[in-house]
Amino acid sequence: MFFRLLLLLIVQLVAILVFSVGFFPQKAVLKGNAEFWINGDEQRAMDPQFEKLVVIVIDALRSDFLFEENMSNFNFTHGLLNQGYAWGYTAYSNPPTVTLPRLKGITTGTTPNFLDAILNVAEDDSSSNLKDQDSWLKQLHIRNKRIDFFGDDTWLKLFPEEFFQRRDGTNSFFVSDFEEVDFNVTRHLPEELNTQSDWDALILHYLGLDHIGHKGGSRSQFMAPKHREMDEVIKTVFEASDEKTLVCIMGDHGMNDLGNHGGSSSGETSAGLVFASKKLVNFRKPTVQENIKVPYRNYEDNHQYLKLVNQIDFVPTIASLFNFPIPKNSIGIIIDDFLQLFNRDAASLKVQENYQQLLHISKTPDSASHDIATLFASMKEMQDSLSQSATNYNYVLIAIGYLTLLIVTLVALRIAVVKRPHFAHLAAVVVVSILLSMSTFGSSFVEEEHQFWWWIACGLVIISGFSTKNHWKSLAIVSVCLRLIRGWNNSGQKYVYERTMFSMLTARPELLWSLNAITIFVTCFDLNVRSIYSLASSFLLAGLCLTSKANLTLVSGEGLPAWLQSVVHRSCLLLVGDLPNLNKLASVPFARLFHKYLMLLLLAHFTFQRMFTGSKRSVQDINRIITAFLIFQTVPGNIPLFLVFEGMRPHLLEIMTALGSIDEFALSLTSLILQHLTFFQLGNTNSIATVNLANAYNGVSENYNIYVVGMLMCISNFAPSIYWSLWQLTTAERLGVLRISKMEHLSMLKLPEFVVYCIFGCFLLGSCIILRYHLFIWSVFSPKLCYYVTWNLFMNLIINWGLGGLVLWFS
């Protein structure tokens, strides 16, 4: 059965990927370069309002970072806004709110393709290149304007080298770096500002603020210094510029309070946008800004400050101010405040040009008058329509993928019916699958999926209680542990609770790290300690895990108790010597030392024990070593959860022993429920915004491998799920349900999970087809589809079959 099930798994993955290729459409874009639509000769003869452009992109610059008193430290920029030298806006960033699709929007004026959110992390991918797509950079280039660029190398992936006269890219995904990544941009400023006659456009893209958000959230202690640093950059550039220079300060997207982004919450879609020039003081400030003093005090209105514009409106605004055609695929609308810079006839001409350009893309009849107010209303309607309709599904691939998955599901169900040990257990698997699958047709159910797994887990305990009344203590302890898990983090996307176990512990570093130390040593010392070797190896494993993790926490600027700081300091001295920035320099070598020791322990268990003692280490022992690595890849505030898991294990075992009729199906279903429950209670959701990058770079240098980082990212986000996946192997060993054939045993353990994934997949893919024009298709259902693909590729194939098979084989 093993090879038959493995073949089905491969076919299932192919079906899902084929469906995804058809479902995530590539946008149809107009090729070629734009020309003026009306009165071309007259427009070409017009003088531009500005001659030089400076674009300062501060990654993840949320609107309140610029405009809210309690959040902002951009004091110089506030002065420019209040004096009229700068005009400020909140720019709506269309989701997915990650850098690559947002840079496409900022430069071409188009709304993003959801697939760009995935390509955002593929450093070697070239399918997102904009060489053949019109943009304001291309319009400047074909007019022989000289562009210098310094910053996030995503720009260099998007645009060809010949667009830039001078360039220097910095890596955008090494989130542990807050300082060097921005210093490498700023160090070019003196030369650039002293040779302004050598360039026409200067682009600076700073990443440090985004990295701080990923590591410590929007209220990190590093935010204020970073704001002041960026404000000083703005001051330097502005003071060195003249009236013919326009300085644009913007975020490519915002962030949520956890510091992540990618979703559609107000914090993630509200980016700051400021236009600054010594020329603007001669004109009337935008109406909203006239009666407001920046920064706002105690202002809360979904991060909307000053006037709200669409971020893609930046493109036609820049095109009009610098007098070149609006890029061909742009669906932006010129910001009307800037029309006062033109005379009456020129302003009317620029609005009509924008209108004709949108009319050409939308292919709608020209029914509007030439009144400016009417034209703006018509353009807004066209923009809204174009934003929703730019999708081209490949229905052939969608049909092939869906029908193939349907066939695989039927075959898997037939195998499960034939191989089932108990009909009741198979029925439970199917019932859970159907109940979960029904939720895929409601956006709120998808957003709040954690509620489903919580109530299923509670129901499992209640049902077990009827058959194991004499084991009420174990039932009570498991119930308490489940309640602790439930209240550990904020889960779901609709409600946020201020008081969680995570927030309370992170506010008390002394208590948190005492619990972390206990968790690490309990986990590591629960090995089969029968010799000096076992004792020493366990102690060293726990010590390395604790000190290395604490050092990474210290480098990130999080709180650490004095006793642990002393231990970490001495350990770093031993590792790298007495050097400046000792902890930072030791972070990568320290983490790598832990990784190497972990591999050495596993190698010893897999080979030396068998060769020299003739014994095989149990699944339990191997599982403990892997758990130490999972703890290392977990956010400090979540590490005590593993102590709760450890407390549950013996009582779950007692309950299962008391039930008597435990088989692979019951074990697999219990494991599956706990995998999903703990995944969501770790703080994860079905939104891309909660993908945590903080531990994806543990032990990784700046010249990293994207595949290594991707694997570490998956491990850190799925750490509790991996724990409970391996738990079923150790529990099967203890309950004595292991079969003669290891691969047969693995197949029986994984068959119920495979059935659940198949049934759920049929419903989810079906809901994506039916709801493909739903308002929330890209913000709710598409991210869920991405998570489903990840669960199947990473958790089901790599962890359940790959890692689980290796552990069984070598145990």
TrEMBL record:
<feature type="transmembrane region" description="Helical">
    <location>
        <begin position="704"/>
        <end position="726"/>
    </location>
</feature>
<feature type="transmembrane region" description="Helical">
    <location>
        <begin position="665"/>
        <end position="683"/>
    </location>
</feature>
<feature type="transmembrane region" description="Helical">
    <location>
        <begin position="625"/>
        <end position="645"/>
    </location>
</feature>
<comment type="similarity">
    <text>Belongs to the PIGG/PIGN/PIGO family. PIGG subfamily.</text>
</comment>
<dbReference type="InterPro" id="IPR017850">
    <property type="entry name" value="Alkaline_phosphatase_core_sf"/>
</dbReference>
<keyword id="KW-1133">Transmembrane helix</keyword>
<dbReference type="InterPro" id="IPR045687">
    <property type="entry name" value="PIGG/GPI7_C"/>
</dbReference>
<protein>
    <recommendedName>
        <fullName>GPI ethanolamine phosphate transferase 2</fullName>
    </recommendedName>
</protein>
<keyword id="KW-0472">Membrane</keyword>
<keyword id="KW-0256">Endoplasmic reticulum</keyword>
<feature type="transmembrane region" description="Helical">
    <location>
        <begin position="393"/>
        <end position="416"/>
    </location>
</feature>
<keyword id="KW-0325">Glycoprotein</keyword>
<dbReference type="InterPro" id="IPR037674">
    <property type="entry name" value="PIG-G_N"/>
</dbReference>
<feature type="transmembrane region" description="Helical">
    <location>
        <begin position="423"/>
        <end position="446"/>
    </location>
</feature>
<dbReference type="InterPro" id="IPR002591">
    <property type="entry name" value="Phosphodiest/P_Trfase"/>
</dbReference>
<dbReference type="GO" id="GO:0005789">
    <property type="term" value="C:endoplasmic reticulum membrane"/>
</dbReference>
<keyword id="KW-0812">Transmembrane</keyword>
<feature type="transmembrane region" description="Helical">
    <location>
        <begin position="452"/>
        <end position="468"/>
    </location>
</feature>
<feature type="domain" description="GPI ethanolamine phosphate transferase 2 C-terminal">
    <location>
        <begin position="390"/>
        <end position="810"/>
    </location>
</feature>
<feature type="transmembrane region" description="Helical">
    <location>
        <begin position="785"/>
        <end position="810"/>
    </location>
</feature>
<feature type="transmembrane region" description="Helical">
    <location>
        <begin position="511"/>
        <end position="533"/>
    </location>
</feature>
<feature type="transmembrane region" description="Helical">
    <location>
        <begin position="754"/>
        <end position="773"/>
    </location>
</feature>
<comment type="function">
    <text>Ethanolamine phosphate transferase involved in glycosylphosphatidylinositol-anchor biosynthesis. Transfers ethanolamine phosphate to the GPI second mannose.</text>
</comment>
<comment type="pathway">
    <text>Glycolipid biosynthesis; glycosylphosphatidylinositol-anchor biosynthesis.</text>
</comment>
<dbReference type="InterPro" id="IPR039527">
    <property type="entry name" value="PIGG/GPI7"/>
</dbReference>
<keyword id="KW-0337">GPI-anchor biosynthesis</keyword>
<dbReference type="GO" id="GO:0051267">
    <property type="term" value="F:CP2 mannose-ethanolamine phosphotransferase activity"/>
</dbReference>
<dbReference type="Pfam" id="PF19316">
    <property type="entry name" value="PIGO_PIGG"/>
</dbReference>
<dbReference type="GO" id="GO:0006506">
    <property type="term" value="P:GPI anchor biosynthetic process"/>
</dbReference>
<dbReference type="Pfam" id="PF01663">
    <property type="entry name" value="Phosphodiest"/>
</dbReference>
<keyword id="KW-0808">Transferase</keyword>
